[in-house]
Amino acid sequence: MPFINFSKDEIQCKIVYYGPGFCGKTTNLQYIYSVTEEQTRGKMVSIDTKGDRTLFFDLLSMNLGKIRGMDIRVQLYTVPGQVHYDATRKLVLKGVDGVVFVADSLKVQRKKNIESLINLAKNLAEKGISIRAIPLVIQYNKRDLDGSDSEILPLEVLEKDLNSMLKVPSFSASAIKGNGIFETLREISKLVVKDVSRKIMFMDKQQAKG
Amino acid sequence: MNVVITKKDLDKIEGCLGKIVSSSFANSVLLIDRSGQLIAQQGNTPDVDLLSLSALTAANFGATAEIAKLLGEEEFTLLFHKGRSENVYFSAVGEHTLLVTLFDDKTSLGLIRLKMNQMIDELAFIVSSIFEKGKKS
Fold first, then answer.
1. Which one-letter DSSP state was computed for residue A25?
2. Are strands B38-43 and B78-82 parallel, antiparallel or unpaired?
3. Is B86 exposed, middle or buried (0-12, 13-18, 19+ CB in 10 A)?
4. Residues of chain B with C-beta less than 8 angstroms from the C-beta of A12
5. Per-residue pLDDT at A51
6. How far is CA A204 from CA A8, A146, A187, A209, in A?
7. Fewer C-beta within 10 Å: chain A N or C terminus?
8. Which among A5, A57, A202 has CB closest to B59?
9. What fold, for A3-209?
10. Within a 13 Å sphere around the CA of A160, how many CA atoms are in the beta-carbon half?
11. Which of the four CATH numbers 3.30.450.30, 2.30.33.40, 3.60.60.10, 3.30.980.10 does domain B7-136 have?
12. Size of interface A-B (CB pairs under 8 A)
């Protein structure tokens, strides 16, 4: 649900990073925060919780430039990944315009990835949004563990598990090292902006008719 | 669904918020939507990060709504946080938005509540017409 403010010439959108626990959603935001300039980003807000887990959400707002003379401001949110925090995930998904699904490449997390994607589809459906219609990008995180002691899944397996039906853009990434993070952000921003522009054009047509 | 706020709508909302600020002596009044987006603001709070405040407020309201459900209530329609000198008062405006009032010890909670309640119906009417338009688009 983009907010289009004609008075301030500003469009506000919400992008949510979704995925199983410990897959690296917060690390994605932390990396973006650490390397972007202050003019383009706001503060990073993390609700302080004990330990490494996100209990509620993290938030980072960014300016993405202009389309048709209007400033695009996106808010990046993360959700808690653990299964039992479903109520919180639903709250954060409220008004979402685009989703990045962060998958954990570790072999032991294979089932958790699939469960989390199904959970995303279910929670979106409850809000009347189809997972096939919303701008969505999949990120295969922790690729830097390739060749280490931790066994990771080949990209083909992850694609088959998570993207064989959806066929959305996907990226391999390492949130800790920063690889693939901006590619993911750029793609989801592009899809969201395209979706919003389509909606604005549709509204213009409606107004012209009316 | 898109939410489009025209200049005319925003002027009306800002008019209402302005009245609350001037009559209640609050420092600042914000109208935000329940997904955490800032819609309008009046008053003077230069050092506050309003975008983060909006997101956290929406989350706060959502979280307490879950507490309310556990207790058999639908939601708590108002919340009040008291600090040493700064205080925040939150109130639901219809089903889509929240009103956030920041104030200090120059005024009182009673006056803030009174002035806010006087404007809430008018604000709820303006807001619901904006969201109704959004549903049709």
1. H
2. unpaired
3. middle
4. 37-38
5. 64
6. 18, 49, 26, 9
7. C
8. A57
9. Rossmann fold (3.40.50)
10. 6
11. 3.30.450.30
12. 82
In this prediction, the answer to ipTM > 0.85 reads no
The full set of domain ranges for chain A reads 3-209
Out of A6, A12, A206, closest to residue B37 by CB: A12
Q: Give chain A's length.
A: 210
A110-126 vs A86-93: helix crossing angle, rounded to 10: 50
pTM surpassing 0.90? Answer: no
Contact A14, B35 (CB under 8 A): yes
Q: Do A3 and B37 touch (CB under 8 A)?
A: yes
Do residues A36 and A185 touch, judged by C-beta distance below 8 A? no
CA–CA gap between residue B16 and residue A11 (Å, rounded): 23
Contact between A43 and B59 using a beta-carbon 8 Å cutoff: no
Closest CA to B1 of A90, A129, A135: A129
The more confident residue out of B1 and A49 is B1
- Give residue-wise pLDDT tens across range A37-54: 988 898 888 876 556 677
Distance CA A150, CA A146 (A): 8
Tell whether A36 is within 8 A of chain B (Cβ): no
When pLDDT is cut at 50, 70 and 90, the band that residue A70 belongs to is: confident
Sequence-distant (≥ 6) Cβ neighbours of residue A117 within 8 angstroms: A101, A103, A162
Cα(B117)–Cα(B112) distance, integer angstroms: 8
* Chain A residues inside the 8 Å CB shell of B32: none
DSSP states along A86-114: HHHHHHHHTT--EEEEEEE-BGGGHHHHH
Domain ranges of chain B: 7-136
From CA B37, how far away is CA A15, in angstroms rounded?
12
pLDDT at A200: 76
Residue type, A40: T
